[in-house]
Amino acid sequence: MLASVAILPVLRTTEPKDRALAQLPAAKSGSFPAPLPSVTSAVAPESPDPASPTTSRPRTTAPAKTGKPTTATTPPPAKATTLPPTKTEDGWTVTTGDGGLRTYVRPFQVAGGQAVIRMTSNGVVTLVTATPAEGFAVQKVQDSPGNMAVYFNETNHSFIIHAVWWDDRPFAEVSEVGG
Questions:
Q1: Predicted structure pTM score
Q2: For the chain, which terminal residue's Cβ has fewer other Cβ atoms within 10 angstroms, N or C?
Q3: Nearest alpha-carbon partner for 136 in 24, 4, 1, 6
């Protein structure tokens, strides 16, 4: 049920706003594509009754003889992957990559839904997930890589999560309008 509510804004879209999407053949079609054929499973052959005797004998072969003894080699152990250490700053989970790039991740929960936002120390703000609560729709507005707002809207009522990269650190503000 939650997944169907989350996709409602997509399903309610009348036409693509992206010019490249509007040029795709599927955008011009008013109908859904034909369904794929159903998968059929092959019938397994009947196995003989284990109690009945068999008339054939299993074939065996002797190992080939070579002049040199064989030795088994084991592959080297896989290199263990280590995750960068994490710390928490002002509610943000922070990791630092090998190149020194810091990544900040934080979940937000409001009565209109929940969102997870990621920011990087090079000033890029991204929406990881956004799930509206029942009766709400979600909308993302981003006018620059370092400035984004996530709206959870219902009639005459909105919750806004505004996230910006500011002064070399993440900043987020949650507000409610209407109600």
A1: 0.55
A2: N
A3: 6
